[in-house]
Specification:
This protein is mainly alpha-helical. It has eight helices and six strands; from the N terminus they run αββαβαββαβαααα. The strands form two sheets. Strands 2-1-3 form a three-stranded antiparallel β-sheet. Strand 4 and strand 5 form a beta hairpin.
Amino acid sequence: MEVDGRLSDSTGVVEWCQSCADTGNEVIAVKFCSVCKEWLCSACTDFHRRLKALKHHTLYDKDALPVAVQDIEQDNKTKYCKTHPNELIKYFCPTHKTLHCGDCAASSTCKMDKISNVCKDIRTDEEFKEIQSNIGTLMSEASVLEASANEMITSVVEKGVRDVAEVERFEQLIIEKIKSHSRSIKDDINLATSESKCQLEGVIDRCNEMRSVGEQLSNGLDESIENNSEVFVSFVQAKPVLLSTFDELAAAKDQSKQKSYRFKKSVELENALVKVKYFGSYEAAEATLPARSADTNTLTTDKQPDCTSRFFYNRCNPELCI
């Protein structure tokens, strides 16, 4: 198998430590283990050399791999067949632009090309370069959208706070309006109560005065008084006083009569509250939130990679070649 110059530093290709990649870290590899068939960074290389079970593995510098080891490393990077999960992808169908393993090729009527033969000039293919460019555009657009979404989170939270404050202001307006009317009615109740209380307290004072007059008249006509002349004088004097006091009693009775008050609810407000089914609503004002846009080099649905390249493989079922 011929291997292109991708393992050389002069190509600009970077190999990553596969052990670190499994933990989500990207660390440049410096060695390749022909036994584990993995690239290793400096730290993983030191660990490899210290661990008893691994210390005898042969490690190679990335720019000094023997041809046999290059073949191992190349096969290790090859993906497995979806139809036959245990078989490596080694063939390409130029008719259907599909990838296959040896089992697929053996049972297919299509003419298959070995990937090792057709992949030599893949890096110079125009669509390969276009896809790389589109991948970069995709990542750039995703980064821009992510940044925009982070900005919008702050905006959405702040907008929510403002909207809650607006609801509370409306709520307070209604409450204050009702309280204002309520205070006015309560003032009327307190005034009517105070006036009635004062009026009835005046009746009580009149009753005390009339009782005092009655006691005086009763004392002047007491049977224990032996002097009839004195009793007669008291009798004559008592008659007009008694009549006047009865007039005072009648006036006190009129004064004791109180107006009857009751709270009359606003029928208009009560009917309005019955008709109102909800306090308000929270509705979408816009279909979507505005997002920042990247530069003019944007991958859109109008500019998708086509399948004209001899290397661009079809995403359809590999059974097309069977």
